[in-house]
Amino acid sequence: MNEAPHILIVDDHREIRDAVSRYLERNGMRASTARDATEMDARLATGQYDLIVLDVMMPGEDGLSVCRRLSAEGKVPILMLTALGEDTDRIVGLELGADDYLPKPFNPRELLARIKAILRRATSEEPIAGALSGRRVAFADWQLDTDRRVLIGKDGAETALTTAEFRLLTVLLERPRLVLSREQLLDLTSGRAAQAFDRAIDNQISRLRRKIEADPGRPAIITTVRSGGYCLATDVRDLP
Fold this sequence. Notes:
By secondary structure, the chain is of the alpha/beta class. Helix content is 39%, strand content 21%. It contains 8 helices and 12 strands. The protein has helices at residues 14-26, 37-46, 63-73, 87-95, 108-124, 163-173, 182-190, 200-212; strands at 6-10, 30-34, 51-55, 78-83, 100-104, 136-139, 142-145, 150-152, 158-160, 222-225, 229-232, 236-238. A 5-stranded parallel sheet has the order 2-1-3-4-5, with helices on both faces. Residues 193-198 have low confidence and may be disordered.
């Protein structure tokens, strides 16, 4: 980046907004604030941001709903702030496409470190579809249009994917018939290490299976390997 990264802080607590904004600016970043989703949308409509720090608990549209909406557009990395001990919010946020999370109360130095890590990944990593970017591929009874991020069934019906589902599916499609551990999948899809009792990948797999498996309870496309992880148990081929 040639200029200081611009961070948008979305939190209904003014004290947190102001404190985080001042701290980031003291550390070489630009910061803007919004008290809720409506104000955030207004900021996004008129400015460019490199990352959003997004609180889960807000009046009106909550942070999880905002995360789902923004991740579907795939525009700006998101770091979610969750209440201490609220594992459900943390896991759901990651499933919906958040790049990282931080429980409240947090150390500003850790927040800064996580923001810098996300920005490094955002500026250095391959396009979100990796090696599949710009291609259309077929597997089992499905096609994946990587440009539009949609699944196409054999009947032609289209199924939209969230950012998290798309990332996970492309990682699997790039490595057919290879067993990948939860830790590997988490690193490949989000660039972070697993935490104790981290169920983010398991929940993402379950959601993806509900979209692509004929019987999600007895999956044939994404299989579970005992003590190993998950495997895309089908061939993948390019389409013209």
